[in-house]
Design a protein that fits this description.
By secondary structure, the protein is of the alpha/beta class. α4 crosses α5. The chain is globular, with a radius of gyration of 21 Å. About 40% of the residues are buried. Strands 1-10-11-6-5-2-3-4 form an eight-stranded mixed β-sheet, with helices on both faces.
Amino acid sequence: SLNKMNCITRLSASCLKKSKMQQRYQCSRRPAVPLGSRILTDPLKVFEHNMWDHMQWSQEEEEYAKEKAAENSLVKVQREDQDKYEREAKILPEKRREELKAEGSSEHAKISSTNSSSHKNSMFEKGTKNWKKMYEGCSTSVQGCIGNENQAISFNDNPQSKHSGEELCSLESFPGSDATYRILEVGCGAGNSVFPILKVLCNTPGTFLYCCDFASGAVELVKSHSSYNSAWCCAFVHDVCDDALPYPFPDETLDVILLVFVLSTIHPDRMQGVLNRLAKLLKPGGMLLFRDYGRYDTAQLRFKKGCCLSENFYVRGDGTRVYFFTKDEVWNMFNLAGLTEVQNLVDRRLQVNRKKKVKMQRVWIQSKFQKPLLQSPNNPAETTEMYP
């Protein structure tokens, strides 16, 4: 059946219910897949909620953002310091990265300050729901890995996945070699996304989760967690910028790759190489799910002079770096990596600190790119059906 592919089409075509909105406060062209349904129609009610979806910037706001970015880019970091940051490049500290993932994926992210412990516990409890919201509209299997708690989930109805799994099992054994559906999270941190996914996988035969991080300490935290089990998960230290560093599994092994708030931490000159390598890990028909900073996000506009490394690329006070993307840049990079667009949109939201009466324009890029299906050996113009 074509259930999986049809699921993508049906869910991608569903939009928010039509209603009359003021042009100033709502995008005139809604994204193919709704990211949220809290629409600001009355500016007097802006402080009633922490987050508003599908914001349309005015021309004045657009101009202000461009001016602020141009202003904080005038003074560049000294060349010797740039080289130092590259040599000592640090992937985002796991605590901060998990905050960003929750911030970027939660429909109603809380801005009020909380202590670190309670914040992490809250994120863990909401993790499954947040992943579902972030990537609603994927195939049934992908929805399963991100926590669709309202339907039965099957990871084993992909004939190509089964076939590939059988072929791999005939090769040298590797972690997850017996699985028929495999997922990789790049930049897993301490596992605040890993364990909600594992909650689903541990009850789903034939599935396996890989997760990696630049920081060995973060990986050790994942492995020491009570929910970690090598029967359905493999956590490992990995530098995605090192092309010579092998992964603990062969190419064309993965069905899904999660790349969330990771690519922006990498030097722009190395991003394409990272994506090219990740694309090789996907099976034909496999999906790469991406979310990261968008151009002119509040975080970009807040940088002071002297923090800019290069155009739209900055260094924070803790030495970590961050790039701010446009969706065209994202499309170009993924296209060069041999992946095709399933979804690529700008997620504009208004984040509100109700206590301080502060408004922040947030911009994220959210995308799904797929590895093309296998070509027919007899006719390269034809593709092999993945879902008969």
